[in-house]
Amino acid sequence: MLALHVLASGSSGNAAVIENTATGAGVLIDCGICKRDFLKRCDEAGFDPGRIQAMFVTHEHGDHVKGLGVVLRGLAKVGNVPPVFAAGACTANSSALAKVAEAFDVRELTAACAQAGSQDMANAARQSATPHAAGAPAGQDSAAHATPAGQGSAALCTAEPGAVEAAGMRIIPFATSHDAAASFGFRIEDAADGDAVGYLTDSGIVTAQAHAALRYVRILSLESNHDPKMLAAGPYPYIIKQRIASNNGHLSNGQAAAELGTLVAESRAAGLRLPQTVVAMHVSQNNNDYSLARRTLEAALGEAGCYAETLCGYQARLTTAR
Asked: Higher confidence at residue 125 or residue 70?
């Protein structure tokens, strides 16, 4: 099964590892923290960073990419040079990503079509060994055929349109709504048993693509950035407050709770997997409170009759969901 290790989450730096616990291999999403903190939290998680087989960039903002180059150079010293997947528009708009592209293997990242993939997502939920998947009707697999694209032990390949396979997992990017050159979230599926993790952060709204991709996941990491009242009364300049609250900003606690409730209701109606763990992500240290974000998600789960574990991704300490 899969494990999510949130190494850091917040406006000062973001990084997360999705681990295939059967093999110990994994993929990294973003790296906006220093190498020291990256290595320390990987060690705390019991994850060997030398087993990272691919890296994915949600978007080009510094809190998501500023540590990528130094971490890649550190991994290269121990013989691990994983490919980096980032949108070309992000690389063109980030000096940090441009420098990475000069020295390392950076490949184009594009959003997969959530509508085309929705049947695959339902099939994965049916295949997964969870109580909620039992008894669901079988469906036709509409996945595009994967073709080799990587080298060496990474055993990495791509599948149209936009999905990547690495570390025994299928990583499916989807479009988010953020004030970046391009921005993505990810659905990560275990190729062997259909287990799935949803990863959505830095989005002002939940796009149709995002909603489709987050269905039927066992672990859901969902942005819960701010409380609107705290944001309005907080210390930020008005223009920054407007940006955060806009459709190209960040999801509020209430928006995250509404999306969570809808996902649970749809999964229950389909007789498919409900989330077992929900992680509040990118919680603002100025315009929110970790306990408030978690309580808001817990309330949404309670109203939907789903009693999943709720956690928070923290700025300065590890959170692991298994």
From this structure: 70
